[in-house]
Amino acid sequence: QSREDVRSSCINLYGKVVQKLRSPHTPAVEQQLISTLVPLMLLMQEGNAKVSQKCIKTLFRCSCLMAWELPKRAYSRKSWDNQQQTVAKICKYLVTTHQDSAFTFLSQSLEYAKNSRASLRKYSVMFIGSLVPCMESIMTEDRLNEVKAALENLRHDPEASVCIYAAQAQDHILASCWRNSWPLPHGDSWVCDPAATHRWSPSCENLPTSHQQRSWIMQTLGSWKLSLKQ
């Protein structure tokens, strides 16, 4: 809903309904509440003080009912700008605690990345950049390609900050997946391009046996990395 007063009222009403719920709750109620996590946190970042306040209150009510232990910064109205570690902690908590809903979180963030409001596109992109690395063990090729296509499109967004965050999200996803697939010796500092350091080509036959089962993701990421240089 484009009107701020309507969004604020709806979020407030939802929070009051949640406040009236009592345990034990059904699986359907639990899933419904889980599905509101990402929308509430992203709307909290849109820049409207009234909407943000209602999001915080509603998120807190959901957490109390479900006994969630979200990172404290998840309830903060402070902008996520220069707060990548905060976003990473939130994403790690969501995937660790609600792994069955991880793809729902991804779909929601991809949908918000299409929003007409630039602030929501920007913070959705930042969220995606932290969420995808947390999902590496469950990520599918189709969903990774969907993320790739979305970020490529957002690199040409009319809002400059969205373009910048999309590029950063791409770099973050690539760096995290490459690093996890080829751990460095203890004590070594991280370098951006392990392919150059290890003279490694991301093909199945060149991968160590322990990494062959993830060859498809490495091939996809390798192609993505190459396309970014062009």
Automatic annotation (TrEMBL):
Residues 2-172 form the Maestro/Maestro-like HEAT-repeats domain. InterPro entries: ARM-like (IPR011989), ARM-type_fold (IPR016024), HEAT_Maestro (IPR055406), Maestro_heat-like_prot (IPR045206). It comes from the Eukaryota. GO terms for cellular component: cytoplasm. PANTHER family: MAESTRO HEAT-LIKE REPEAT-CONTAINING PROTEIN FAMILY MEMBER 7 (PTHR23120:SF17), MAESTRO-RELATED HEAT DOMAIN-CONTAINING (PTHR23120). This is HEAT repeat-containing 8. It comes from Neovison vison (American mink). The lineage of its organism: Eukaryota, Metazoa, Chordata, Craniata, Vertebrata. The gene is C9K0L2.
